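Structure tokens please, single chain.
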Amino acid sequence: MAKKSSGDSVYKVVELVGTSSKSWEDAAKNAVETAAGSLRDLRVAEIVKQDMTVENGKVAAYRARVLVSFKYGN
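Here you go.
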């Protein structure tokens, strides 16, 4: 079995959807900052999709689908 060096780590990736009435940037920020409250060692966030909800012909909310990675295990 290969020996792990002290710098080796494993990360898990989860998909989140953040929302905002202001912008996609705020939607992504909301997703990451909310996740940071319960996930440790967040490392990378990648916006993989942006969309918006429309009500009565007007933008009601911006949505950002974000992949975030965090340290998994010890």
